[in-house]
Amino acid sequence: MADTLVRPTAEVPPVEERRRPPRVRKTPVTYLLRFIVTAYLFFLVAWPVSLVVTNTFDNGWESIRSLLEDPDMVVALQLSAYVAVWSVVINTLFGVGMSLLLVRYEFPGKRLLNALLDLPLSVSPIVVGLALVLVYGGRNGWFGPTLAGWGLDVIFSTPGIIMATTFVALPLMIRELVPVLEEIGIEQEQAAESLGANGLQRFWRITLPSIKWGITYGVVLTLARSLGEFGAVKVVSGNVLGQTRTATLAVEEKYLNFDQQGAYATAFLLAMVSVACIVIVGIIRPKNHP
Amino acid sequence: MIWFSALVLIPLAAVVVTAIDGGWDVFWSTITNGQTAAAIRLTVFTALGVTAVNVVMGPLIAWVLVRDRFWGKSVLEVMIDIPFALPTIVAGLVLLSLYGTDSPIGVDIANQRPAVFLAFLFVTLPFVVRMVQPVLEELDRDVEEAAASLGASRLTTFRRIILPSLTPAITAGAALSFARGVSEYGSLVLLSGNLPFKTEVTSVRILSSIENDNVAAAAAVATVLLAISLAVIVLLDLIQRRVAARG
């Protein structure tokens, strides 16, 4: 009798061993797939990207230095950074608001709004630019002349660029926050409310800390997208040298003017930022989504 | 809500209103104009082709990333996201440096149709992979093992067990990558040369209409793109609903 009682426990492997993911069977197919995928990504992504780096550093740091000494280029980089920061700020504020609205409240048209939120991601940036010009264009837009009457030019100046950038980066923050908000639920907030916390306190003390990783992730994505926006900005900015030319527009301009070194150097700077963004996201993500 | 309308809805509505302002005939003759129609055809067919490639390669990449473990996998993981984060104009330049005029491997497809295909392929790479990956991670391996123990070959297991559960994710990813392909602009500027009838895509066509101050034509073509985007979104919504309904 005793041995039958003992045996089952002996057969269950130790906890650690059980937790280990099942060993992958290594067959020729495994290696074939691995090879195909690596080669595909190498030719499509890794090699082209690394070429930009080598092209930039053909003459050592020379091209980067001359780039940073060019006053027009400095203005373009500053403008890009400025626009990106504004777009991040706007999208963060409204992203949090919209996400709360979508998760916490029921209202007619919610499903429609939810679906429409994805529109900026799938619409062509050129169409975005065109749409903004049609509405806010200084000469014959819907609201443009009125705003121009107030001394506020939107199109062909910085506000237009900010709007275009905000538009294309809009869904990123919301898509990041909605699942997090859905997951945390409202029990804690209800508890806080019953203890007498007001709306602001509840948001500041409970909601915000629990979505802060979602926000961080959203900010990084929005930043990457904003810095890199090209098509929509091209339509609305007018591309005035030293005034409304962003860094991405400068890449095109330089390349078309046969200043390949300059184009590669600018592209390198932009690529660095975006790669840094993905790496940061990669570091944050495992903590956030175990 | 107001902010969303001011920024997104009203401008997009303006595009449609401007497009139908001239009446149906004008709209129709604009989009069936030889050059425009050629651009739309090229865009849609290339996007379809690229989506087909992604439907095959995407799950494959996701599979390797989830199931296989080897040195350097995390590098591949980062590489998937590069096309999404890289500014599109930089993406164009990047591809041009390997597949352009002074290519180190002697492949020069700049200003040719394959360039459009390549650019689409680059920018749409992450979509299917990123949709399929989480589903594949969640997938219960016991079911596969059960199938295998009942004598199913690996191919059968894949076809009967794994593929059905991945289908919604693949479809959603394909829809996204199709939409992204159709609307792509930035990476093509440098790469494709924008030759009319040959490598000019719809977005470029719209831009040149804007630059020629022909806003009505631009709006008409933009409406076509908008319709495609909306169709994709509706499709995505339907897929999500079906998945949610299933459990």
Keywords:
heterodimer, A: 290 residues, mainly alpha, MetI-like fold, 0% strand, disordered N terminus, B: 247 residues, 11 helices, MetI-like_sf (chain B), transmembrane (chain B), Sulfate transport system permease protein CysT (chain B), transmembrane helix (chain B)
Q: Say how many strands of chain B there are.
A: 0
What's the SSE pattern of chain A? HHHHHHHHHHHHHHH
CATH class of chain A: Mainly Alpha
CATH superfamily annotation of chain A: MetI-like
CATH topology of chain A: MetI-like fold
Provide mean pLDDT of chain A, rounded.
Answer: 74
Shape summary of chain B: globular
Over the alpha carbons, how many angstroms does the gyration radius of chain A reach? 26 Å
User: What is the radius of gyration of chain B?
Assistant: 21 Å
Largest sheet of chain B: none
Helicity of chain A, as a percent range: over 70%
CATH homologous superfamily (4th level) name of chain B: MetI-like
For this structure, the CATH topology of chain B is MetI-like fold
Measured by residues with Cβ under 8 Å of the partner chain's Cβ, the largest interface is: A-B, 82 and 78 residues
Q: Name the poorly predicted regions of chain A.
A: 1-22
Compute the number of structural domains of chain B: 1
Taking the sheet with the most strands of chain A, its summary is: none
Strand content of chain A: under 5%
Low-confidence runs of at least 5 consecutive residues of chain B: none
